[in-house]
Amino acid sequence: MSTGNAGPGGGESLLFLTDEQLRKGIEAMFFAYRGFTADPDRILDGLDYGRAHHRAIHFIHRCPGTTVNNLLSILGVTKQSLNRVLRSLIEDGLVESRVGRVDKRERHLHLTEKGATLERALSDAQRVRMRAAYRAAGPQAVQGFRQVLEAMMDPDLRRQYQTLKEGGA
Amino acid sequence: MSTGNAGPGGGESLLFLTDEQLRKGIEAMFFAYRGFTADPDRILDGLDYGRAHHRAIHFIHRCPGTTVNNLLSILGVTKQSLNRVLRSLIEDGLVESRVGRVDKRERHLHLTEKGATLERALSDAQRVRMRAAYRAAGPQAVQGFRQVLEAMMDPDLRRQYQTLKEGGA
DNA sequence: GATTTTATGTCAGCCTTGTTGACTTTCCAA
DNA sequence: TTGGAAAGTCAACAAGGCTGACATAAAATC
C-alpha cells in the first residue's frame, strides 16, 4: 500500500507525501466544509429551504437565463430532484422561468427581485467567512488553496468551474 | 511560513478582496468537495453503506477506542443518527463495541480486521486523489490550502481538528 | 442508601434531498 | 411526418439528517 513513491533522487519534499500528511488534508476538508456551509444553512433554516435551494439560487444568479439542462449539469443531480426545488422557488416567486424565444422547449431561469434579495443574504453570509479566512491565511495561501482545490476536482467539473470562473472574472 | 508578506503587488492584494474573488473560492469549494467524496462514494455504492458509514469508520480508525459520545462530538450528528450507522457496522462485523473497564457505561469502539480492510480501501482511494492534487499544486500550495481550510472552520471544529492533527502527527 | 446525572441504546415518526421508472407535452429538425 | 430532445409530472423509495420519548446501567452526589 501507498507511499511507495519515495522518488528516485531529488525533490523528495515535493514528492514524498506521507499518509499522515494526506490524512490531515482529508480531515481539514471535512471540517472546513462544515464551516463553509454553516452560515447559509442558518439563514435557510428559518425559511422553508435547504442547501439544494441555495445551490440552485447561487447558480441561477451566476448564470442568468441558464436553461434547466445546463443547471442540471452544473449541480449534478437528476432533473426530478432539481425540479422539486425549482418548483418551490418558482411558486414562492424567487425564480422566474421564461420560455425560450429561439427554442421554446427550453426554460430560461432568472432570479426575481425577491430571489436576488435572498441570494445576496446567503452569499453575503458565506463571503464574510471566506473573507475572514482569506485574510487570516494571506494571499500566498489563497493562491495555494485554489490550486489544490482545482487539482482535486473531477476533470468534467474542473471544466465547468473554469468556464464559470472566466465568465465571471 | 510568513504569509504576512504583502506580496509583489503591494498591500492591495492582501486586503482588498472582491466579491468575484471570494465567489471563485466558494465555487471551488463546491466543485472540489464533489471530487473529494467521489472515490469513496464509488466504493460504498457497491456495499450497503453511505458517506455516514465512511465518516464513522474513518474516525474510529483514527481514534481507536473512542467512545460513542466522543464520536458524536466529532461528527456533529445526533446519537440516533450515529446509532443507526454504528448498529449496521457492528452487525456486519466491521466495528467492535467494548464495554468500558473504568466506566462501564461507555462503549469503546474499534475496527475489526474486516473494518480495517474497508477503511484502507476507502482511504487509499481518497488519498490517491489527494496525493495527485498535492503533487500537481506543489508543496507551497499545499501549505496555503491547509491554512485557508483551517481558518474557515468554526472555532469548535478547529479545536477538534487540531487535537486530531497533533494526535496523529 | 436514595436520588440524580450521565452514557448509551432504541422506537417511532418526520424532513430534505437524492434516486429510478414511467408517462406526457411541446416542438425542433431530419 | 415522424423521431427525438427538452421539459414537466407522478409515484415510489432510500439515505441520512432531525426530534421526542423512553429504558437501562452505572457513576456521582446527596
TrEMBL record, chains A, B:
InterPro entries, per the entry: HTH_MarR-typ, MarR/SlyA-like, Tscrpt_reg_MarR-type_CS, WH-like_DNA-bd_sf, WH_DNA-bd_sf
Gene3D superfamilies linked to this entry: Winged helix-like DNA-binding domain superfamily/Winged helix DNA-binding domain
All residue ranges annotated as the HTH marR-type domain in the record: 19-154
GO terms for biological process, alphabetical: response to stress
PROSITE patterns: HTH_MARR_1, HTH_MARR_2
Keywords linked to the UniProt accession: DNA-binding, Transcription, Transcription regulation
GO MF, one annotated term: DNA binding
Any Pfam family: MarR_2
Key word Phosphoprotein present: no
Name the record gives this protein: MarR family transcriptional regulator
Organism phylogeny: Bacteria, Pseudomonadati, Pseudomonadota, Alphaproteobacteria, Rhodobacterales
